Amino acid sequence: MSAPATRRELRERRAERFAAPNAAARDSAAPESQRREVSSRAGRLLVDALLWVAAIAGTICMVLVILALTAQITLIMFRTGSMSPTIPAGSVAVVQQVAASEIAVGDVVTVDRPGDLPVTHRVTSIAPGESGEQRVLTMRGDANAADDPYPYTVESVRVVLFSVPGIATVIVALGDPLVLGGLTIAATALVVWAFWPRRARAATGAGS
């Protein structure tokens, strides 16, 4: 026969019986807590990525404004394919205002036409104008079989520095007031969601 259990042994047995369910509960809660932590971390990474994209887009806009004011560099959109395949329809080109005397044959330039839309074609010939600043340009679209029907007398033009195909539709959409308003609201909500809840979570964690 075994000796009767002491009070100490009885207390230890009771403690073990109570500890086992608590340990099981903690073990079952651990995966759920880990899943919440992983989900929270993924959400923070997504918000951080969106904030970085917004910051980069804002920086690009500021750079474009500065370039437009200081170096007379702007953007133009190609709605037709007259310069295909070099610059297909739907492209956006970065152009710079320069004196006509700086233009050479082969340059792609934008010429403003009073009462009509600007034209952007390649220069095929250059002749002197009536003044020292003027030049008479003959131009042709890369997709066209003949030169434009008449020459252009200009003192300054916008020369194409480079172009990016396929983004004209995006820029047109961004110019829509409804799209701009939606983006503004979304950006504001994103900033509030990104920073305000973090401070709340930090305060909750500090008080626990």
In short:
This protein is α+β, with helices and mostly antiparallel strands.
Please give a structural write-up.
This protein has 3 helices and 7 strands. A 7-stranded antiparallel β-sheet has the order 1-2-7-3-4-5-6. A hairpin with a 6-residue loop joins strand 4 and strand 5. Helix 1 packs antiparallel against helix 3.
Cα separation of the termini: 52 Å
Strands ordered across the widest β-sheet: 1-2-7-3-4-5-6
Fraction of residues in H or I helices: 40-55%
What's the number of helices? Answer: 3
- Largest β sheet strand count, sense and barrel closure: 7 strands, antiparallel
Radius of gyration: 34 Å
Query: In terms of per-residue confidence, which ranges show pLDDT below 50 for 5 or more consecutive residues?
Result: 204-208
- Helix-strand string: HEEEEEEEHH
Class based on secondary structure composition and strand pairing:
alpha+beta
Mean pLDDT: 76
* Total strand segments: 7
Shape: rod-shaped
Strand fraction: 15-25%
